[in-house]
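Open question from group meeting: does this chain pack into something compact, or does most of it stay loose? Before anyone orders reagents, we agreed to write out a predicted structure and look at it together. Recording both the input and the output here so the notebook holds the full record.
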Amino acid sequence: MQDYVNQFLNKMSNIAQMSMIDCDSYSIVRKHLELANGSKISIQASNTHYCTPRGWRPPYTEVEVWADKGLAEYLDAVTGEGWYKDAFEEEPFTNISVKHVNDYIETVGGVK
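Structure tokens returned:
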């Protein structure tokens, strides 16, 4: 399976660091990732985000995500947690498995 998450984070880290767009000395805030189904999710990882490992460069195994409703429902289904769908508009999800995010991206047809 393709590692959409780490490819995106690596690409956006390089762009931000080269141009200093959307970054400061403490963190990089990346743009949304547009999915093939038209939705967008925000995937963040750095020394100031809830991710594993904490730091600047992929590969990451867990990331911080501002999710769309589809990803929230998917996370509820695969984790059995049941609260993601009620919280997706209020807060980022922290330390989310990259595997789960990649699997969800695959189910919606990949990225644009």
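Observations to bring back to the group:
The longest helix spans residues 4-19.
Residues 18-24 have pLDDT under 50 and may be disordered.
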